[in-house]
Amino acid sequence: MSLFPTEGEASLGTSFSSFNIPGDFIGDIRMLDLGASTCYLESGGNNEGVFTSVSAEEPLVLNPVFAAVPEGTEEVALFLPNFGVFPRVPVVGSTDVFDVGAALAASSPDLEDAGPFPLRALVGSDDGSSATEDGVDATTVVLSSDVTFASDSAELSADADGVLASVTAALGRFPSGGGLAVTGHTDDVDSDAHNQELSERRAQAVGDRLGQLADLSGWQVSLAGKGESEPRVPNDSDENRAVNRRVEVVLRPSDRAEGEGGPVAAGGGEVPEPAGPVGTGAEGVDVTYKGKTLHVSLEQVQRVDGYLIGRVLLSSDTDTVHFELQAFHMPPRWQSYWGIVTTSACSLTLLNGAIRYLPMQRVGSSGGLWPMTNRSALSVRGPDTPVLVPVVWPDTGQDTVTLDLPGNGKDKEAIALRLTDIPVVEA
Predict the structure, then answer these.
(1) Cis link prior to 116 (omega < 30° from 0)?
(2) Of 105, 139, 142, 289, which sits 20 to 30 A from 159 (CA to CA)?
(3) Does CATH place domain 118-259 in 3.30.1330.60?
(4) Which keywords, in A-to-Z order, does the entry hold (predicted)?
């Protein structure tokens, strides 16, 4: 991999650094096999020269190391933090371009936790009534009990069918059927016994109604209640308790390939009001963050292998802007997927009607989710040092898209803005 500025000199510095491994200055580079929906982590390549000034005449050559892709893989994408996502990188033989043996000899590869890791889509209603996690082996639809049921009741609300539409849409993607598990969950209010019984009745109510709304003859249906035993987040606030009151519907299709080639969820519904300034993607918008002016733009996104990739540009004409953890956080119903201490830019979402498409998630070795965006805290260091934030999203199926940062509700330190009319081009 050869890097150089188009004019003058520059230093890569810590642009590709892994935030949790001291001295690893290229560890946050990732390789994506988008056709297989997998991600590989950089695993010990030589990072010599990252602090050296380079130019077009004297480029910096890096040899990141990844685990091997499956035989027959013809191309991959390269995710470079603070630069972009570069698709259609050909996979060639070990002697076709450079001396692989020499590159490995100068490296310290450790492939124990290198991947491949599955990529998972996360799509849902802006109001938090439902969210769909689309993974390699299963699709999980999370239904908010606050919308689906009356308080402390297993009787379906008048809005329940609208919420359950996300499940019936998921079922329609897999006509051959498979396994269908419906599980109720509660918060920690009231007794364990009461919550267990309530969660079981709510699972039963959802299962019964799905049988009326969709043909479940090809699905093996199981119903269960977990009470308060499996919270998604600590039950330490009203907002978190609302997150934990839910019914989860897990689809394990017998033919996963039937669901490929289309959007995870169809857009629709009324577009929510913007939480911040609005402009076109090409022109961008100015937002105020900690008393300083930040300009944000996104000229286009590329469609490749069922995904959309883009580079969000953050710049400032006058100020140096340092971002804190919550700058790119979302409301608790979404942020609960990653936790409140993550440094990732979680809130760079696409909006199609009332449906929000979050950045793709890499499933970690311990089961955690990592958004396919920058993972470390950002800084715009004045007018000469803008930041490019690469993002990978599920395909929305549109010709133009809308980037929407919703803020996180009560915390004004989270950036909110909307960019419209962003063209989708083929990679």
Answers:
(1) yes
(2) 139
(3) yes
(4) Cell outer membrane, Membrane
